[in-house]
């Protein structure tokens, strides 16, 4: 890991250090065009394109895209310990997400009754990445807020395993979260199927979930298409920024950095500290702990482009964190909780030495789908509202219209829109 | 206006009738490339590109991009009636928007303290279109929620008048809403300046506001750029769908359809009714009222592609409205208020004969920046939250980690992420 002394850098160098490489958010010409061609194949050929892609990209010959009732019997093979873990995590996630559930309101003032109604998005698509292991936690993070929002149609798509099956853990978690239908599709083709629909997979209005660069690029492309679908948020590689003072526990810090690094060789890992001693102790701890970890290779590649920044004060650490706007921010400092007031830009904050990121990744209740690549400056992590939209309304009595009428007429006049003015004048004259 | 009997159509024809023409949401190759070239000019040349564009597109030679303190003296020339109208509208908009202001929360359970903090987006850009008249209402709809959210930097850009000045009404409304700096720039070049910054205009994180097809396309392009900015929502031409029963007032309905039609020759105007008589009466009323309106030509062009749909029941009217998902929905029916329960997809609803759309466009308090082109299926109108983002946090005690630890370990194991598991195990072992 590169060690940088913040005080020795000028503004340009500092910006450069905190800048993500753009290549990491997808869009290069080759990626763009190959994803575009996959999308158009799905648009034109529908299901048959999905079967072809499953052969081509997942090396699977599927008999059917939909998971059959019979396949759900595989749930029986899932051990009780895993089932309990999924149930406990789901309970905590449900509890936290209900807290930020939006509430309808209305009021009346001068004969004008105004209000807002929150409605679920009727049809949503949930993408669960495949890969070496079943990402059951991602399923919980998408399906539970969709369930609380009350979305009628929740379409789950996920790439099949090499044997053409879906992992028992995914099947169990899906059932537990009220997901009725699961389709075997992954990559750009799955996103295209959700955005435009096929003979088997229904079109949805909004697509949620993380994925590799093909999935990310496909989500961007369908969200630009007037006939496509909206998406949850743009996504880059996962990130953590850790702030540590001289009293912090180097072993705990190292374990947090390593946990982030194992995600992906492009994962972003940054330690910002006021203590030279912590720098050395953390580097030493990483050398020790990495030997016991199975994803050594990925971790090494991630750490190669990771940085340790030595700052002059805790306040400087926070200003660095706020300019970087990390997906995950971990605070290994004294009075960590009261320091939350200093956080301006971050996806989720892990406060104090007993709050490792993995707790939030899996089970405490917060959502782990969070803004990356600095998008924490303007995007929120996933919540129930992301699965809903609001509808405002107004109901005026005759007195209400009399009260506000002149104001509306003046403003319509000011904007030169006399048909707007007439809609009020004509009503008032009609009396 | 084309009159359609819904019962005589098959599903395909019905979908076609309710489909917006895609051309209307911008993206054609010529538009895309001309906007792209304007954006790259602003990226490379900064201010000088903006001065050039002002000459080229607005026919103005500007001395300065920023509105000077001296120019604010023009406010004195604004009549008191207009000032009062702006003040009253602002008061109502402020009141309504504060009602949906998100609230921080936190709770503690089993030694796990979880919560969410809502923070303003630090830097936002507000685009106010120019044209024949000053769109002071749009300024209020953008600036007031930004003010309530607490955004530190609110950059307002708007095209200058032919005389190079900004209208006194805009200057007054901006001051009244706490906008400090206004820049004279319009079109795609203004959006590029906000997204990437120039020597004079600061870069912002999110861009708000309606505009013509160049502005809309520019917003789409900068929102795709990893170094660009987020945008409020995709936008198409303004729309209204009116539902009327046989007891409705044809003159009121006609005035509402005409108010929508005067916006833009591409405005979408739809009447859905159960009464043949209402159809004829409304058509007759339109012929009468249109003669008194100054924007006849635009209205005629808009009405040429507008539709009247004759349905069998009020419930069928609502199912048509919900599939169309209109920006504005006006209910000229009995028990209009209780019918709100039937609304699934709409931007804003105007309930009953005394609630013309213009009331909400200007002064009642609801926001008039609403999802068009069917985006009401998954997007909300502008609100305070659009100017904020949420940050979740968690603070565990040692007991909290002991309580949840095993669940996290099991799920990390299930997903094959042992560094995630280790971050917990190592802490628990350290005791």
Write structural notes for this entry.
- The structure is a homodimer of 431-residue chains.
- In chain A, 43% of the residues lie in helices and 17% in strands.
- Chain A is an alpha/beta fold and 431 residues long.
- The first copy, chain A, has 3 domains: 2-22 and 237-365, Rossmann fold (3-Layer(aba) Sandwich); 26-231, Rossmann fold, CATH 3.40.50.1980; 397-429, no CATH class.
- In chain A, strands 1-11-10-9-12-13 form a 6-stranded parallel sheet, with helices on both faces. The first copy, chain A, has a 5-stranded parallel sheet with strand order 6-5-4-7-8, sandwiched between helices.
- In chain A, helix 6 links the parallel strand 5 (153-158) and strand 6.
- The longest helix of chain A is centred in the N-terminal third of the chain and has 20 residues, at 80-99.
- Chain A starts with a strand and ends with a helix.
- The mean pLDDT of chain A is 95.
- Strand 13 (348-351) of chain A pairs parallel with strand 14 (388-396) of chain B.
Structural descriptors:
homodimer, 431 residues, Rossmann fold, 6-stranded parallel beta sheet, 5-stranded parallel beta sheet, 14 strands
Instruction: Give the low-confidence spans of chain A.
Output: none
Task: Please report the two chains with the greatest interface, counting residues with C-beta closer than 8 angstroms to the partner's C-beta.
Answer: A-B, 132 and 132 residues
Count of helical stretches of chain A: 15
Order of helices and strands of chain A: EHHHHEEEHEHEHEHEEHEHHEHEEHEHH
Any idea what the radius of gyration of chain A is? 25 Å
- The CATH architecture designation of the largest domain in chain A is 3-Layer(aba) Sandwich
Main sheet of chain A? 6 strands, parallel
What global shape of chain A is seen? globular
CATH superfamily of the largest domain in chain A: Nitrogenase molybdenum iron protein domain
Number of strands of chain A: 14
Judged by helices, strands and strand pairing, the structural class of chain A is: alpha/beta
**Cα-to-Cα separation, first versus last residue of chain A:** 78 Å
Helix % of chain A is: 40-55%
The number of distinct structural domains of chain A comes to: 3
> What number is the mean pLDDT of chain A?
95
How do the strands of the widest beta sheet of chain A line up side by side?
Answer: 1-11-10-9-12-13
How much β-strand is present in the residues of chain A? 15-25%
């Amino acid at each position: 890991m590169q060690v940088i002394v913040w005080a020795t850098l000028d503004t340009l160098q500092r910006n450069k250090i905190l800048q993500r490489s753009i290549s990491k958010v997808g869009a290069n010409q080759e990626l763009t065009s190959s994803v575009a061609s996959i999308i158009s194949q799905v648009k034109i050929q529908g299901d048959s394109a999905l079967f072809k892609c499953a052969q081509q990209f997942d090396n699977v010959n599927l008999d059917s895209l939909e998971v059959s009732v019979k396949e759900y019997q595989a749930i029986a093979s899932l051990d009780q310990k895993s089932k309990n873990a999924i149930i406990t995590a789901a309970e905590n996630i449900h509890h936290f997400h209900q807290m930020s559930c939006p509430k309808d309101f209305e009021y009346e003032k001068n004969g004008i009754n105004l209000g807002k109604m929150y409605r679920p998005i009727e049809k949503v698509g949930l993408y669960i990445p495949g890969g070496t292991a079943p990402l059951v936690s991602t399923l919980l993070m998408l399906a539970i807020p969709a369930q609380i929002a009350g979305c009628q149609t929740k379409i789950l798509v996920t790439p099949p395993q090499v044997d053409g099956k879906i992992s028992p853990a995914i099947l169990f978690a899906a059932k537990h979260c009220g997901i009725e239908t699961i389709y075997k599709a992954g990559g750009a083709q799955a996103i295209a199927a959700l955005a435009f629909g096929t003979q088997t997979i229904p079109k949805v209005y909004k697509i949620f979930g993380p994925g590799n660069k093909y999935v990310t690029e496909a989500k961007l492309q369908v969200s630009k298409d007037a006939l496509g679908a909206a998406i949850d948020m743009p996504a880059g590689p996962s990130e953590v920024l850790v702030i540590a003072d001289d009293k912090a526990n180097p072993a705990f810090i190292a374990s947090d950095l390593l946990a982030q690094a194992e995600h992906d060789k492009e994962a972003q890992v940054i330690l910002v500290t006021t203590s030279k001693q912590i720098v050395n102790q953390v580097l030493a701890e990483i050398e020790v702990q990495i030997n016991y970890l199975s994803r050594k290779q990925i971790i090494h590649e991630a750490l190669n482009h990771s940085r340790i920044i030595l700052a002059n004060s805790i306040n400087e650490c926070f200003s660095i964190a706020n300019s970087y706007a990390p997906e995950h921010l971990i605070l290994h400092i004294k009075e960590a909780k009261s320091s939350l007031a200093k956080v301006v830009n971050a996806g989720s904050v892990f406060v104090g030495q007993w709050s490792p990121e993995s707790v939030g990744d899996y089970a405490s209740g917060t959502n782990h789908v969070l803004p990356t690549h600095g998008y924490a400056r303007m995007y929120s992590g996933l919540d129930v509202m992301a699965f809903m939209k609001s509808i405002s309304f107004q109901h005026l009595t005759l007195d209400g219209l009399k009260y506000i009428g002149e104001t509306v007429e003046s403003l319509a006049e000011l904007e030169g829109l006399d048909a707007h003015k007439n809609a009020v004048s004509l009503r008032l004259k009609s009396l």
